[in-house]
Amino acid sequence: MIIRQERPEDHAAVERLTLAAFRTFAFPDGSRPERPCEHYLVHVMRDAAAFVPGLALVGEEDGEIVCNIMFTESRVVRPGGGELATLTFGPVSVRPDLQGHGLGTELINHGLNRARELGFGAVVIVGHPGYYPRFGFRPAGGYGLAMPDGSVMEPFMALELVDGYLGTGGGKWYADEVYEIDRDALAEWDAGFGEG
Ligand SMILES: CC(C)(COP(=O)(O)OP(=O)(O)OC[C@H]1O[C@@H](n2cnc3c(N)ncnc32)[C@H](O)[C@@H]1OP(=O)(O)O)[C@@H](O)C(=O)NCCC(=O)NCCS
Q1: Which of 66, 94, 108 to mutate to test the pocket of ligand 1 (most atoms within 8 A of CB)?
Q2: Which residues line ligand 1 (CB under 6 A)?
Q3: What CATH number is associated with residue 7?
Q4: Pairing of β 171-174 and β 145-146
């Protein structure tokens, strides 16, 4: 698999891939969302100030995009008011017929290594607690971090790209607001989305 930065001409294929991948998505309790929103998220994320173009990556096999990952900047607000820059990724998608063959692992590891090369210090995510520890993610609560509402749930995880970067000061973690999907805008955009 060739992993490279996404190009404008990839956008439509990445959105179709994201929809296909998230049709297979199930929450840890086995339930499934009625209609995925991640293909719309991918669409709007590229215009967000927090978007990191150098970390919008696609995996290509035989000239076809088979997986993708995107990162945004996020932040920790310290109890005293200071801020710490963090990174967040998602969605991450692998073509359904290729899932479970290591592509996701290769792509995520590639993205994390590239993020380290670009100078980012830590990645904080809300993701499947059965999947992400293999990349080194640990419960974010162990670093004194909490969600904006103060909660510390199991899928809330952090990975230091630079040892000690998160320190011991803790704080509340904020993802970019692009993740707060405008349901009306989604429905309108989705109505015109070719199923591919
Ligand atoms: C999640 C995803 C990116 C993983 O990529 P992949 O190439 O299928 O995964 P890999 O082959 O690298 O790794 C396989 C392992 O991941 C686990 N895994 C795959 N999808 C998982 C999920 N949604 N939750 C938990 N574990 C998952 C498998 O059980 C397997 O575990 P094992 O190694 O202990 O047997 C891919 O399955 C996918 O696109 N899923 C649908 C969309 C999604 O859920 N994205 C993640 C949320 S942002």
Answers
A1: 94
A2: 21-22, 24-25, 90-94, 99-105, 128, 130-131
A3: 3.40.630.30
A4: parallel
